[in-house]
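Why this split exists: single-chain examples teach little about how molecules sit against one another. For that reason, every record in the complexes split bundles all components of an assembly together and asks for one structure covering all of them. Below is a record exactly as it appears in the raw files.
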Amino acid sequence: MSRFEGLLKKNLEKKLAAIDRAQSDLNELVTDLNMVIRDEADGIAELKLRTVADDVDLKVFELLISAAPQSGPKRVIETFSLPGDGYPISTGTYSRSEESVKPRLLHKFFLDDREKLEIYFSKLLSEPQSPVVAFLAYLRRQDL
Amino acid sequence: MVASTQISTLRFAWWNVADFAHFDKNRSAHARWPSSQDEYDDKCCRVDRVLTKIQSTYGPMHLIGLTEITRQAAMELKDRLFPNWDVLSVDPGGSKSELTLAVLWNKEISLSEDPPLMPSRMPAGARPMVVMDFKYELEWIRFIFCHWVAFDGEMSDKYRRWQADYLSSHAYSYLKDTDSGFRKHLVIAGDFNTEPYGLMQTYLSAHKHRKRAMDSHYRDEDVERVNLYNCAWRFTGEKWPHGEGLAKGFVDGAGTYYYREEKSWHTFDQLIVDSTLLTDRKPYLDEKNVEIIYMDEAVDRDGLPRKFDSKTHGVSDHVPLVGCLVLR
């Protein structure tokens, strides 16, 4: 029996739990936002997380918005990069070559914990300059 | 929708009309809104004179992008000068009305709006980039009109970098997606609140020489970048050589925006195209007809742009620029 037995397993489990927790926070908040769009904007648009990279120590998701049901043009609202420890989540734009996912621009800002993530998502709904609000306004113009 | 247009050239203009709000008595005390109907009417007359003169000098326009204009002012402008045109404004209107972008176009060309471009975490007052598509035969020309975050210290530079990066990312995905069967082209016009050098090159890959936009680099695909050509580099200095400008009655013309407090010209209004518009295959950019408009109607008595003020002849602190695409 190795004197190191269990250390790696424990470490990996801890890492996976952390990243899973952050990912589940993201999923939950996207679902919450979609509920608000359904209730307060007739569900005309839908947000969705698209997986860009899915590794043990880095997961990258794009938050997309499109008209509901999912059809027509989409816009990327944000790209979230989750490190092995789950938080802080960083944001920025990414490029995807065949080999890897790389940041195009240095991370704009960090979302340190669930609370910061919630503030970020609430601003997507409350600020007039939010890309979600701009997209909803576009959909409204198409109906005129 | 594919238009049935038969026009052979598409002329367009871009202009920051500076604080062109309609009269609203509830906002008449606001510095950027007209204090009276008369003041608004006066501004309308001056804007109309410039746009009328542009058309009589350069030929009828088909598409005009404007910024710092309210929805109502844009609608009224259309009704006065272009009654048969269409207009799109991203101003929410009503009590939330704001000075933002509007696009007016001749119905001879059929334009459709694609969702605007807006990075997240922008400061209050940031404007979306307006995306308008013109399709004819198997050609798809996308116009993107921009008015980026105003200069306000180093923080604002950060926001413009995000805007440039977001636009660059969009340009890449639009041009590289060939599933539609259309040949795609891109025209970006706007007030970027920054000079053509610096972040416009670094983050938008909008270069000063055409060949750079035509040649790809092995890293371009890796970082998902398209190289673009920024026509505005040619506008960064004096328009006329000494002597010629004097003969034309202009002393100075070295940019698109004149900042009176600093007595400085800036080339903040720029026109950027992708490489497909730089060959001899139509459609292409007719660059000899890309011009900054220094005409008496667009400047004050001293020959320099000035914001509208009923006591002066100013109409805007920006002058318009015009461009032309040869379609067939």
